[in-house]
Amino acid sequence: MRDAVPGTGPTTGECTVWWAGPVDPALRHDLVALLDEHERTRLRAFRRPDDAGRYLAAHALTRIVLGERIATHPAGVRFDRTCRCGAPHGKPRLAPVGDGGPEFSFTHSGDLVGLAVADVPVGLDVEHHRALSDVAGMAEHVSSPAEKARPAPATTGEFLRLWTRKEALLKATGDGLSRPMDSITLSPPGHPPAVLEWTGEGAPVEPFWLVDLAPRLHHPAAVAGAGAVAPRIVEHDGDAVLHARAARA
Question: In this structure, which long-range contacts are made by residues 66-73, counting pairs with CB atoms below 8 Å and at least 24 apart in sequence?
Fold first, then answer.
């Protein structure tokens, strides 16, 4: 009998989110061993240790959590990375695609990685609060015409909140930054986060929910998914999941 991994049990009707810190590949050979050849090649290509640590934590956490959900060893979890253009650089999905498995999204920034899992298409984004040289210009670039008519984000924090919301939505649709952020109009500051309008060719017609998260100081985050009403969002300690894996290795 397998021991249950902390926080990876069934989540039907919920959106579960795990947060963890980077891990040093040189110290966690057990986690590196869970990756497939594509992931190990990407891991070896990183020149900066911080980038490698975030990548390993995000991908190992994803494999452990999804493996528990589908009753498969983490190293045996298979992904389809086919983009809409046919190249293997798209948003990872569980393979075989269309088999009814859970949907997921991972993200990393600063000293934090995150994973969201749900029964509907889901997107998660976190950004590390850091100095930005031109907040007004960046806000102008990502704001819709309706948003430009409002007062512009005055601080880096306000801009990053706007960015994480839109990035989470684009991840949920699978478009990523191939679709411009200025095609999305969000609710104004002081109101609960919501999508008011989505324009442009191929824009989603179905509703998407949107929830702000604050997993750590100076790390604004957002999670979004398909549906008119947000499910219960449950956050877990991803570090505990990674540490538990070391104990079982």
Answer: 66/94, 66/101, 66/102, 66/104, 66/117, 68/4, 68/5, 68/8, 68/9, 69/8, 69/10, 69/11, 69/101, 69/102, 69/117, 70/94, 70/101, 70/102
User: What is the model's pLDDT at position 161?
Assistant: 95
Q: Mean pLDDT, to the nearest integer, of 52-64? A: 97
pLDDT on residue 115: 98
Please report, for residues 25, 182, 243, the alpha-carbon distance to residue 53 in angstroms, rounded to integers and kept in the order given.
Answer: 6, 32, 15
Alpha-carbon span 188 to 23, nearest angstrom: 38
Distance CA 163, CA 12 (A): 28
Helix axes 37-45 and 49-69, enclosed angle (nearest 10):
160
Average pLDDT over residues 66-71: 94
